[in-house]
## 1
Amino acid sequence: MSVTEAPKIITARASFDDSHTMERFLATGGNDGLKKALAMTPAAVQAEVDTASLLGRGGAGFPAGRKWSMLRKADVSYLVINGDESEPATFKDHLLVERDAHQLVEGVTIAAYALQVNQAFIFLRGEFALGLERVQEAINDAYKAGALGANIFNSGFSLDIVVHPGAGAYICGEETALLEALEGKRGYPRIKPPFFPAAIGLYGEPTVVNNVETMSNLPWIMLNGGAAFAALGAGRSTGTRLFALSGHVRNPGVYELEMVKHTFRDLIFSAELGGGVPNGDVKAIIPGGVSAPWFYPEQLDVPLGQDEVAEQGSMLGSGSIVVMDTTTCMVRAAWRITKFFSRESCGQCTPCREGSGWLERVLWRLENGQGRIEDVDLLLDLCDNIAPGLSWPPQQTTICVLGPSIPSSIHSAISRFRDEFLAHITQGACPYA
Amino acid sequence: MSYFTESRQARAEQLIAVYPEARSALIPLCHLVQEQDGYLSEDGMVEVAKLCGITPAEVRGTASFYDMLHTEPVGKYLVGVCTNIACLLAGGLELLEHAEGSLGIRAGATTQDGLFTLEETECLADCDIAPCVQVNHRYVRTTTPEAFDGLVAELREGGRASEIPSHGTLVRTRRDLALAVNPDDIAKERAEHRAATENAS
Amino acid sequence: MPEPTSEAVTFTLDGREITANKGEAIIAAAERAGTYIPRFCYHPRMAASGNCRMCLVEVDGPRGSTLMPSCFVAAGEGMSVVTNSEKVKKAQDGVLEFLLANHPLDCPVCDKGGECPLQDQTLLHGPGETRFVEEKRHFEKPIALSELVLLDRERCIQCARCTRFADEIAGEPLIDFAGRGDRVEVSTFPGEPFSSYFAGNTVQICPVGALTATPYRFAARPWDLDQVESTCTGCATGCRVAVQSSQGRITRLLGVDVDTVNHGWLCDKGRFAFDGLSIDEEGLSLADPRRRITEPMVRKNNELVTVSWSEAIKTAAGLLRSVDAHAVGAIGGANLTNEGAFAWATLLKGIVGTDSVDAQLGDGLDASIILGLPRATINEAADACTLIVLAGDLREELPVLFLRLRAGAAAKQTSIIDLTNGSSCFDKVSALRLPLRPGDAPTMAAALLGSDDATAALLRHPEGGTFDATDMDRARHLIGSDGTGVVVVVGRPSLAEDAAFVEDAALALHQALPKATFLPAIRRGNLHGALDMGMAPGIAAGRVTLTSASPSLKALWTKIPSTSGRSTLEQLRAMDHGEQRVTVVIGADISHDVPDGALVDRALQAKSSLIAVTGNGSSVVAAAQVVLPTPISHERGGTTTNLEGRVSRLGQKVVAPGDAWEDWMLVTELAHELGVDLPFGCLDDVTNAIAALAPSHSGLTTSLLASSLASDGIIVPLGTEILGQRKAADPMAIPGLASADQIGLGSFTGSISSETPLASEQGKTSVSFAAIELPQRNPIAVPAPDSYALRLISRHKLYDLGTATSASPALSSLAASAVAKVNAYDLDRIGATSGNQVRLRSTKGAMVIAVEADGGVARGTIAIDFNVRQGDETTNAVLALLDSSERVIDVRMESLS
Ligand SMILES: Cc1cc2nc3c(=O)[nH]c(=O)nc-3n(C[C@H](O)[C@H](O)[C@H](O)COP(=O)(O)O)c2cc1C
Ligand code: SF4
Ligand code: FES
């Protein structure tokens, strides 16, 4: 159960106390990847990223290279970085923007060059006050160093980056809602099709939206080559990934691990990583953000890879892993997650808007001992009305996938711990209270 | 008389200028209003509407979508306690209850002296130091009831002023006014690039 | 809305092969094929928002069959769509149950109860018992969004129809959603109500009872309503309406979706003004527009006393006989039906023998120009490549026409060249703005047509040009060389300048741009019908000159006017000079509407004998010798004609109070008294006489009008328009027409779907018809500007002191107030600021008024609205400055503070 010898790709600099400064950045290879990229043709940079098989780190795991190749050719196009990071228990981008904003700016510049986009926006959730300052500082520094702005490093390529603060709405992580927010509107996800903003995005122009972590990989890929990146991990899951571990573990935190080479068990129990579950055993884990169906102890040995997790009926999503030990009340956990969705539903789609609130209230009653026997099946049937069939990946009755994410925790909790729900009802109280 | 102070007026104009369309500056401008008034005042919204070229109803409608924009006054310190799943497992709800008790208000309310507004928040993306607490959107990393009370006492005394500005001030690092790239240069550059790729193919 | 193109695609719908237009939404294609897909947020006249999720259907795609919103997804070639599977039903039932979860159970007290799609769907397929045992969402009871619209937030289902309407259709986003998730509510900004002229439409399209209109709240239950389809005569747009009544009183008007005219929309004046019909007249003076005139009256001992109809007719006939025909004149008639107008024109021109008949009140354009210019339809104007706006503010004058024209410009399909001086309804959507100073229209026309001298002349104005020379280049480019794709909206940009300026400009544009067409923006109700029927000097029924009137028409006549007639302004002068001694005033409020107050006062004092024909009180009634009461608006049948020349039927819904007679009837009696028996035994006789005798209306018989081909009205002359059958209407597009047993495709209304040229349908070829010839005239010159004076502009407002607004309890308080708007530069020059009082002086008179800086008003000009209140005064204050004998009005402004 030892950690692989894989290099630290995006957190290498973060171990320094002054990792956020330009001095440290330059002293540790800062802008070398960018310079290398600028010496190549944009197409060659894209090819390198394709070779790397860099999967998007925002949740959906779509290959960045493929996404870039879909960008419609037009006079104006945009690159937008998704730093909304609001998926519960996800806190990896938080680390990247606070601890190494220069790396992010360098990555964005590389991507913009590859895409020949001259205007990029970094959308950060508004609650990242420090992160917003750090990224702006990094941009100011980069301008001064000639790494940003007009004619970057005399390459003839120009780029401006605007940092755009969000204002508190989880749904703005959904890329089309993010674009609406960036246009100064209510964060309503756009109706699909088109399924990607690559055709019609910001201001109706072709747009690539990528996650902060996805971008932060680019300097290393440029310096070391796409093949070196692809050599790490296995299958479609290449390189390393940040795993945000939280909940009932001894050492919660963000860990950069080579993909697929480790299992959930490794991450949770190995001494260098999670350090184990202090107060008992694992009861359930949320493998990739609260939108993901839960795993149970028998899945602890599933490798941390995108397809490996998908095969088990869930998703690696944003790479956040929540451990719930045997003292955890599953009704309470499902209730709190559902409450989150109810508060964060944008309100457009009837099933999501009304369903989330209804489900939350039923769960609250159950948790407080006022449940009725029929409530358990009611919960499942309402879930089924939001995501018909309750399968994974879910079927959808809504505009965006927030809606069909609501049933994940409820379905997971009931299908495995139905007796716990019934106990709440028969005892008229939460057995864990 | 203009609504913004002179220096903020300049920043407001700069904010409008960095976007291809004025309305994009709506959220940043609302933050700027909050910086000036401590919350999103009606006068501020009217000004934002004017700057963005939309109606005040649209500004309010848009702003009200977002949790960080407060159309009612809030305290000097906006204290957010996360109770979402990771924090829940670490006692977030209990910490929130404690906070309610020690501040003497329910979540959502403001203390009589106007110093503190308490909020129950969704995940703040700092789940390894749980339960997560933010004051004016700065992570304060006080996870125990005792630490929380200590922090409140400190803030009451006017402590941590440099780290935690009063509510509304979100970002203190300014975009350098000279940063933007000349659009004409970009047009030229694009033409050159197009010519180059066409030659190549 | 993705405009369906004519390209067809074929797809499978529940196993059947269906064709659709490429780009057409599945829901619309299915509906045409007779399959109704339930929906809430979809509205065929607005872009799909796809958020209620009620219209989900199964669509097969690369990843198997998935649930997709049929309102948003376009039918594609070879697509397979299933609307009736278990999966679809479960999803739709789920949506319904979710919608009901928080919906209050107040149907018995809800205005919408009985015609509510949510209620209907629930009764048909909804869950029998609610599984929702939690407490429902609660809101404080109705809040006012505006003076006319109330919101019950509990009932709102967040379909966004109202907010989308305000933004997308009206262009006035004064309401928006606030909040997020299930806390979303429709709201206005504090202190800024939803005072849009179009707010009433949101009430009509709200699928539940969340939005209600103050005039209708609790007024009736849908099942008590009786309805008839009609045409709104509030202005010359001619919107199609459903008029509903309960117990003999009109309770509500709803817009009917007609593809060629109003797309289902109405303005609030048209929608709500009906409440003035039955106003209580206790104690109101005869001069008060709110006073209904219900009995015939004759002046005896200097007092109007109620008499029998026969006495009134005898007295009126006696007056008409008492003087030479040349000394008789008639003013007004724009609010008549076509039948009424035809009858009056026949009587006055052919029996009395006077040509001094004018339906316009000095506020329009020469009839031969209106009738002679090649006319555009509303659809042509809405689809034009380039639209030149040489008119007043259309939102104020012809509100729904404005909506139709705005849509094309907002979608960037039409480039508007807006010549309006002062704020314009097209400000946010026009391609170019070239503000016109009073008197400059002919020069502007010359400049647009390529004259650099004219451009230079406009730019050389002492206060500077109102545009950049480059804008003129762009305008010329948009107009092109022969006017193909160009439509000119021509009306009165200002009532404070001689109409000849605009007329000259229009003639010049027509001459140079033979392919351009014109849409006359002259606003009053059935003005165009009145002109068609000959109610203008020199004109006879059928859009012909008096001299070329059809022989069969003349066969009805016993006299032919021997001298050419006087316009309204000329008649007023003739009254003042004693030359016109008997004047019939037909439904016109001349002391408010004629842009020369002093002249009207003198004419009324001159004691020419007045015969007032009207349904409402006015100063004319108060001064009349004889008063003949007639029904108004929804109290009569017949036909009416809109500004594009579309003749459509009026539906009579209620009877006029008292003893009013329809105009054709009282004219027949008057003629009889004058010794002529007109062959009119009933209303249909008159309609058929028009079809037989008026060349432009040839073939427009009552049977054609009653056929389904004419349900949306027909443009005359016949044969020029493609007509078709109406499709059955979706009650969700026009709620209020459905009931629980009418879910699905209703039978009421809808737009044209199949295209059938009328002529072939009727087995006729189009009649040969020569339009009136345009006058040849010498252009008039504009007086040189005086650098100490401001040139006055005066334009109409929608809510003014006119009868429709004044008589309506719902609207009268909304009448606009007068302020003088000037450019800040001119304000600075006299050391005044916005809000100050100024004294204005013209050669005619003076007034004191508050000023306001307005960047839209060109330097050297000043704008004061026409016929609006000033403080508590309900007189048309700007009249003090106007003088119809001057070509332009120059005023001097002096600060009083
Ligand atoms: C409800 C919802 C929330 C999301 N939140 C985030 C987020 O906070 N950060 C993020 O990068 N992507 C988020 N995503 C995914 C984005 O839509 C998008 O796929 C991603 O930003 C693309 O970047 P990538 O390809 O680099 O992963 C979210 C998606 C949904 C449906
Ligand atoms: S699924 Fe929910 S969050 Fe997504 S668009 Fe619909 S209502 Fe909004
Ligand atoms: S989602 Fe199609 S009608 Fe509402």
## 2
Amino acid sequence: MKRAQAVSVGIAAALAIAVGIGAALWRRAASQPPLEIGGYVLPTPKSLGAFELVDDRNAKITAQDFAGHWSFLYFGYTYCPDVCPLTLVELADVKKRLAERTPAASVSVYLVSVDPPRDSPERLHEYVTYFDPDFHGLTGDVAEITKLANAAGAVFFVPPGQDDKTYLVSHSSSIALLEPSGGLRAVFTAPHEAEQVAADFTKIYARYDGGQR
Amino acid sequence: MRRMIVANLSRAALGLLLAGLACVRAAAAEPSIHVVDAWARATPPGVENGAVYCKILNNGGADRLVAARSSAAHGAEIHASVSQNGVVEMRRIEALPIGAGASLELAPGGTHVMLVGLGAPLAPGAKVELTLVFAAAGEIAVEVPVVDARAPPAVHEHEHHAQ
């Protein structure tokens, strides 16, 4: 009986401590209001799941390849003459601004093709490096691209009733931000303006980079 | 009585016809539509579609941009990038209305003339021929300079060269 009592007291004490720690953690988390950006920040990063794509240098790319650096993902295609070049010009500008503001952050920019039948790795390479020599292009099977798009909160589709050669693709206008764990951390919503995106990234980087998660 | 009405009607019709002819003559003498600040986005290598932007000023009555063509591309279409629920979609526009005395801006991220099937990449400094066809004002030929719309390198940002 005494022994059982002692165990009960022990459990109660352990529970109290656990509740106390939990409350303290919760208070700490709750004391950090969500960052306000042109888009939204995920309080906990979301895993991308599994997929296999090919990059503009013909290398196989999986979710693991996004670990270790920050990644900006834009879903577009090379036949898109208006919004895609416009967004890639802004992203090139963002990259230059971040080289000065967050020089310690390793930042990569990816154009993920929503038009793999026409966007070969070679075509993507010519296209993305025009905007910045370090930009990456990703293409592959529609099913694999769809996996990455879904994980990054993006959609794309070919509206019906179009010519086989000159068709246009509808796609999300947002830019996804992956953190160095490889998980989705934020989504920037259009319209994109380089200064706004760079300022938003600087805030996100200050809060979530390193071992502060 | 009936004959008088018919006579009056024909006189009215003749009047309308004359007034119409006068309008056409006036339009021919002084174009009511002006296309200014036109530019085409220089294209990355291998790209088959281009975009032209401009301002359309209408000093006359209501009109519509109904077609475009260019010697630089297989086809030229009026398009609008439309953003809805976070998805951007390019829509072909059959006719772009422009009100009497109104002006219209075709700008990046919105309405533009899409050049479909470029013969060659649009190189900065080159000029592209573009003909815009209006329902009332007729055809207007524009010489469109090709502009490299990439941001200047950050290190030279303070210089701000005019394009």
